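Let's practice the habit of predicting before peeking. Look at the sequence and jot down your guess about where helices and strands might fall. Then scroll down.
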Amino acid sequence: MKTKTIGSLFVLFAIASMAAAAPSAYGDHAKAVVENAAGSSTPGCEPDCFIPATVTIDAGGEVVFKNNDTAAHTSTAGTPTDGPSGVWDSSLVMVGMSYSVILDEPGEYPYFCMVHPWMVGTVIVEAAGAAEEEHDDHGDDHGSMEMESTPSVVDIQIGAPETASAGERITIDVTILDGMGMGTEHTNYDVVVTHDGETLYEDSVHSHTGESSHDVTLSADASDDNPVDVSVTFTGFGFPGDEMTGPIGTTNNVQVVPEFGTIAALILVVAIASIIAITAKSRVSLMPKL
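Done guessing? Here is the structure:
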């Protein structure tokens, strides 16, 4: 009787362990987010008019198309040459709106914008378990590599414009290097952009190359008293769902303020006052003495 009870408990424990492991195996490609590149309503953004241009999801996963551009767009399955395939069509997605589609059948799905046909992208749908098998095939190699070479220090570099105005779309570039200034792989971080007491952008990122860009539209002018704050926090090296390594919690912050700030304004005021004073003195000296 005791042996049967122990055996039953062991089976229940094994089932619970498999269930707990399942989300980490499939969570990697459950959802993908695609944004319209800034200014993509005019030619010149190709091949990255959709960001990212290619995404991968599991069968049954979801793709969300966000229109953060200043013009309306569509996301239409098919190609500009052959036309719509009929798999999905968002119709016009207005500025600030989004459209999502769930794809169940594995395969590669090209898509484009019917209004701006130079905008093209691809959605890759993998069969259930494909990502898990790939991870299992390379799991030991990745594990030993991380154990041997995981950096203990990271350098978070944030690229942002010097000026920003209301309604302007700015690009925040994030690069995470190791302590030797070398590139990193499978890097995870959180990025938050706030302005005027409002969170304009917030995202948790997994980057294969340690580099990524984020587009943000401002709702008000940046100023010395009211700058745009950009904060990036390192959350570890590793695959989504795995245990993270590295100096987790390392943070870097930058501010976007007008290029012509308070100090420059004061210098200009002093310079103008000096010119006026010198000009007035010159005029006085040229006046004939009575």
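How did you do? Residues 1-27, 140-148 have pLDDT under 50 and may be disordered.
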